[in-house]
Design a protein that fits this description.
Chain B: Pfam families: Fer4_11 (PF13247). The complex is a heterodimer of chains A (421) and B (312). With 421 residues, chain A is mainly α. Chain A is built from 16 helices and no strands. The radius of gyration of chain A is 22 Å and the shape is globular. The N terminus and C terminus of chain A are likely disordered. Chain B has two domains: 47 residues; 212 residues, Alpha-Beta Plaits, CATH 3.30.70. The chains are: A mainly alpha (421), B alpha+beta (312).
Chain lengths: 421, 312
């Protein structure tokens, strides 16, 4: 390792930090042809989204299919799902730091970078859902009027931005130290890592509280919501990371051991069953009790008075999750990579439907006065949503592009100096 | 990656081509980005201004500043809608708390109240918006599930009764609690208001309200100049900006000056009773004292200040 070289090369942070940033910029604009192709594709999709959003700001949110009856839609659905994905990364951090799983430690940065990308997307989805994005500064504590602690949305602003900063600090610090060829000082990152574990749980709990505290929406008004959010987050997060690790291993030629994949598969095995159990528990309670409070659940699972828009979606989701759960039960599923990838994709999409549209829309159908107005996203909403996904993938790709060479010691202060000399 | 670079051909040429390509890509990207955001630039230059952007929260405005803001809004209304209007801010009267009661026995479901609301409050014409929804209910049930707001036939139907629903001006308003920026609050006379120039348009209040009382401005409201109600309140019926929430204010620009809400004046059957809950001699106090009244969704603990009763 490069630590041995450091004594002679250590220089002032004022010199090395800008150089570190410069290397990051260089690395993130450099790569093989498929890197350029991928980034160009993402940029194009992102710009399509930016344009659709610009039109939405100019012409009003009438370009969406949201109404006063269904006043949150695809944006908030994706926001909720992305909070889960951000929290899901913690399933790598816990084994790596609390249980000293060394092989997981090697790749734990993937989970932290995923958290960064996912939170960027969360902030994006909140921003595009605002009717007046020009007034976002009203939300900044100290400058605007921050209705804390009573508004759960202010809690969400705190925990999401806090989680973003924590992960930026942890990854940034470790990469910078590695770049300088120094051993990271535990006191500068370990406390933050432990804090980030609790914080990860908090971002999804607070996001659930955002919904389940509303007495006027019986579909959300259940104590099971936060645990359900966490359980499904710990399915979608690991599912994404397993696939990302397999891609990085193949495309980037980075040696990633089998052990982290096995650990994450083991976690998913359990969390997906807990997730499904909670769905069953919810469905039983609703339908065995009956009454008008279950109208939303009826709409979601079976359709209500001839309105069925979400029924095929939710059963697709349950089917995918069940199939994924069965595949994951196979004892050595991680040895069969296509099968593992299939299980991960099924679980990921299944959770996206369930925790996205499947969670947000039924709360508004029927409305609080029991009127039924259905909702399906408009083309503008899809464009903006795809744009934000492209932005998230861009952030994730660039973060990996910068981190991997530094972590594998292809890029350090010592080396880059040597090369230039 | 660094290896592959080191074995490449003449460094100068390589760097040049790469740099040139990168520069071309970056230029193209920047141009595309500028093109993509053009609608926002257009909107910012036409539909908003620096003074609007920097405007403080209602409660932080001094009297002088508020006067200036209202003056600016009057000018803007003239410019954009071609109408001369007068915007004012009447403060709550001491010793007044507004309450509303509705006699379900005599409401015939004609929706004159909703129509009056539409005109009084300068609602967007094309959407036919109103703060009141009138539910046609099956006799024998108070379950909102049996209600229908989209009826289109002569009223009253013999087997139905009618229940208009609007903002209940709750004493424990969930919509106020959830607002992340304090853009909505309950005034001393019990009216829940919105600062349309502070609201960020997140619609959390709309999700939190159990009575479907809030509306969002999905577009910039369109009202012909000759139909605009020129008597406007800063916190009530002035023409709202695009992208913010609005709601019933018990017509505070009228009621704080001793007049009755527009919906009450329009009611042909006298089903509506409005007044000061703190005045024992008011009609509303009489109704609460002598009739068996109920509130909607009492179990939610929102404590509505809008009451229903049957009288036959």
């Amino acid at each position: 390792m490069s630590q041995a070289n450091t004594a002679g090369t250590t220089s002032s942070h004022a010199v090395t930090y800008p150089r570190f940033l410069w290397r990051a910029v260089k690395l993130s604009t450099d790569g093989p042809w498929f890197f350029y192709a991928w980034m160009t594709l993402l940029t194009a999709l992102f710009l399509v989204g930016v344009h659709a959003w610009a039109v939405q700001v100019r012409d009003g949110m009438a370009v969406t299919n949201m109404t006063d009856h269904v006043s949150w839609g695809l944006y908030i659905a994706n926001f909720t799902f992305m909070v889960g994905l951000a929290a899901g990364g913690v399933m790598m951090v816990i084994p790596a730091y609390l249980y000293h799983d060394d092989e997981m430690h090697e790749v734990v940065i993937l989970g932290e970078l995923l958290a960064i990308a996912a939170i960027v997307m969360c902030l994006g989805f909140v921003m595009v859902d605002l009717g007046r994005p020009d007034r976002f500064w009203h939300l900044i504590p100290g400058i605007g009027r921050f209705n804390w602690p009573i508004s759960m949305l202010t809690w969400d602003v705190i925990v999401l931005n806090g989680y973003l900063l924590l992960n930026l600090h942890i990854t940034g610090y470790l990469l910078y130290k590695r770049f300088r060829g120094e051993k990271p000082d535990k006191k500068w990152y370990l406390p933050f890592v432990y804090l980030s574990i609790a914080w990860a749980i908090s971002i999804h709990t607070v996001t659930a509280f955002l919904y389940c505290g509303l007495g006027g929406r019986p579909f959300w008004n259940t104590a099971l919501l936060a645990p359900r959010f966490l359980a499904s987050a710990f399915v979608s997060g690991p599912a994404f990371i397993v696939v990302a690790m397999l891609i990085v291993r193949r495309v980037g030629g980075i040696p990633i051991g089998e052990a982290p994949i096995r650990t994450l598969t083991g976690i998913m095995r359990v969390t997906i069953l807990i997730s499904l159990l909670m769905v069953v528990s919810e469905v039983f309670t609703e339908f065995y009790t009956g009454g008008s409070h279950i109208a939303s659940a009826e709409y979601l699972y079976f359709g209500l008075h001839g309105h069925y828009a979400l029924v095929p979606w939710v059963w697709t989701s349950i089917g995918m999750m069940t199939l994924a759960a069965i595949l994951l039960l196979k004892p050595r599923v991680y040895d069969n990579k296509p099968l593992l990838v299939a299980a991960c994709c099924l679980a990921f999409v299944g959770v996206w439907i369930e925790k996205g549209m499947g969670l947000i829309i039924p709360a508004f159908v029927p409305s609080t006065l029991h009127e039924i107005v259905e909702y399906l996203p408009s083309l503008s909403e899809w464009k903006i949503t795809v744009g934000i996904w492209a932005l998230g993938l861009m952030v994730f790709t660039l973060a990996l592009r910068v981190s991997i060479p530094i972590l594998t010691d292809q890029e350090s202060l010592y080396l880059s100096r040597g090369r230039r000399a | 990656m660094s290896e592959s670079r080191s074995i490449q051909l003449p460094v100068i040429g390589q760097v040049d081509r790469r740099t040139a390509l990168k520069a071309a890509g970056a230029t193209l990207g920047a141009a595309a980005f500028a093109k993509a955001v053009a609608p926002i630039v257009e909107w910012a230059s036409q539909d908003t201004s620096a003074s609007e952007f920097l405007q403080k929260h209602f409660k932080e405005l001094s009297d002088n500043e508020l006067t200036q803001v209202m003056h600016r809004l009057e000018e803007e209304t003239k410019e954009e809608y071609g109408a001369e209007v007068s915007i004012s801010d009447t403060r709550p009267q001491k010793g007044v708390k507004f309450g509303y009661a509705l006699n379900l026995s005599i409401c015939i479901g004609c929706r004159k109240c909703a129509e009056a609301c539409h005109k009084e409050n300068n609602h967007d014409r094309s959407s036919g918006n109103s703060y009141i929804r009138v539910l046609e209910m099956d006799k024998g049930s108070l379950d909102l599930e049996s209600g229908n707001a989209d009826y289109d036939h002569p009223v009253p139907q013999p087997d139905k009764f009618y229940m208009p629903v609007q903002c209940q001006q709750c004493d424990h308003p969930p919509c106020v609690n959830v607002c992340p920026v304090e853009a909505t609050w309950k005034e001393d006379d019990g009216v829940v208001v919105v600062d349309y120039n502070w609201c960020i348009g997140c619609r959390y209040c709309e999700a939190a309200c159990p009575y479907h009382a809030r509306r969002f401005n999905w577009t910039k409201p369109e009202v012909p100049a000759e139909e605009i109600n020129p008597n406007q309140g800063y916190l009530s019926n002035r023409i709202r900006p695009q992208g913010v929430i609005e709601k019933c204010t018990y017509c505070l620009h009228r009621t704080r000056e001793g007049r009755l809400p527009a919906c009450l004046e329009a009611c042909p059957t006298g089903a509506r009773v409005f007044g000061n809950l703190l005045d024992p001699n008011s009609e509303i106090s009489y109704v609460l004292r002598t009739k068996r009244v109920f509130v909607l969704k009492e179990e939610l603990g929102t404590q509505p200040q809008f009451f229903y009763f049957f009288d036959t």
